[in-house]
Amino acid sequence: MNGNRKGDLAEYYAVTFLWDMGLEVYKNCGCTGLVDLIAMAEDGTIVLFDVKTETLNSNMASDRSEEQKQLGVHLLVFNPETRQFRFMDHRDETTYTRYRDKQHPQLDLVCGDAGC
Question: How is the chain classified by DSSP, letter by letter?
């Protein structure tokens, strides 16, 4: 399978993954851009995602552009072998959302104390 097809597969899996988390998901209709998916929580909070396909030789910690960092884009990493996702922890950030790290719900800054 070529790289573009792997990326398409990852994005479609990401849509269903985020739906399962209770988010509405909107896909970038173009093939380029800073964001692959825009997700909206029930309270109207918007979360931006760039979907990456995991490879053996990639260093994804540095894959966000400066513009993506400024916009707060989250990297959602897809493993094509297991078809599982994980949220990339960014070295340049000290905040996390429940969408990136299910193990730290006390640090949920997207939904706050109200929950989503």
Answer: --HHHHHHHHHHHHHHHHHHTT-EEEE-SSS-SS-SEEEE-TT--EEEEEEEE--TT--GGG-S-HHHHHHTPEEEEEETTTTEEEEPPPTT---B-TTT-TT-GGGB-SSGGG--
CB 48 within 8 A of CB 72: yes
Distance CA 15, CA 3 (A): 19
55: its two tokens? 């490879």
Output the pTM of the full model.
Answer: 0.71
Using an 8 Å Cβ cutoff, are 60 and 51 in contact? no
Dump pLDDT digits (tens) for 10-59: 999 999 999 999 999 999 987 788 999 999 999 999 999 999 888 766 65
Report the candidate in 73, 71, 75 with the shortest Cα–Cα distance to residue 11: 75
